[in-house]
Amino acid sequence: MPTNLTGNTIASTYDQILHVDDGPTATAKTVYSGTGVATALKVATTHVEVDNVKVDGNTISTLDTNGNLVLAPNGTGSVAMAKVAVTGGTISGITDLALADGGTGASTASDARTNLGLGTMATQNSGAVAITGGTVSGVTFSGSFSGMTLVESTTLATSAAAAGVNLNGNTLAADGTDTNIDINITPKGTGEVNVTNIDVLSGKVPFNTITNLAYAAFSDVTDQTGSTTVPAAVKFGTTEVAGAGITMVTDGTNLTRLTFAAAGTYAVMPNLQFTNSDGNDHDATIWFALDGTNIARSATKMTIPKVADGGNAFFQIVFYVTVTAGQYIQVYWLPENVAVTIDHTAAVTGPPAIPAIPSAIISAERIA
Fold first, then answer.
1. Residues 6+ apart with CB under 8 A from 339
2. Which has the closest alpha carbon to 287: 297, 277, 273?
3. What angle do CA 266, 240, 321 make, to 5 degrees?
4. What DSSP character marks residue 235?
5. Burial 290-306 (b: 16+ CB within 10 A, else e)
6. Rounded to 5 degrees, what are φ and ψ at 100?
7. For 186-218, what is each residue's pLDDT tens digit?
8. pLDDT tens across 247-259, in order?
9. Which portions of the chain are predicted below pLDDT 50?
10. What pTM does this model have?
């Protein structure tokens, strides 16, 4: 080290020598030229500084407040970094990174989705697609759908060469090129198609598919006598039509109870063949009872003519009644004279052949 140092200058014979005043310490010291001019370089025992740039170990930082660190290669040169970790700030002013280099080849979200084949859908997962806004249009669906709870559309239609289904508003209609297309609703296994309210405006409903369909017919082939003081239940001892849900049940002595398995409204139609063996006209009163209790306003009075006027009369009525499951209807009658009976006439072999005239016939069917 030369000894001809005066302050921050060295003798002219050493004017190319640089030196650090007082020697480097932990705090960076200015490096001077041989003529005592301070240079941009500062040296410390742990780092060096050049203008506003500090190199400390493997860290390069700036010293001025909010100072940028600019790496500016010359000409066509470039900054080559083997590994880069960007932990903050922004990257701007660079050429779009190509797909082959791991980029999108675009600088906007729309162009990036186009380059990646995503169209306008922001999120596409292989197992599920969540669309929380916007619209999906011009899309053809195929295969099967599962887990769908709601599809909202003004018009929703299936497509086929000859037939399809169109849902528009609250109307489900057949669609397609054919003129006559059925719509089939088929539940699985023992499942059912349940409709809360239904109006059948046209077409047909197969009779034997109606749930709780009920009907039956009965007759009696005996002569039935009555009392002028004690009402008698009309007997129907023969089953003519064994339907479903309606049976004739005994009252303990005779088959008189028309019994309904299901609740509903039924049409009950009794026919009684009266005979009067007396020389005077006589009345008979007929009415209905439900589970042994007379039904209000159900009675009818009719006159059976005397023998001289034929002595026969026919009673017929259609009576509507609403019942609960298991209830029964009985037809009661009360003549004013015991000469009045409900009479059976045997068949005539002929010629001409005439079938038997039952003393009583009753039929019933469920209407609601």
1. 276, 277, 278, 282
2. 297
3. 10
4. P
5. beeeebeebeeeeebeb
6. -65, -25
7. 888 888 888 888 777 787 777 666 777 899 999
8. 999 999 999 999 9
9. 1
10. 0.52
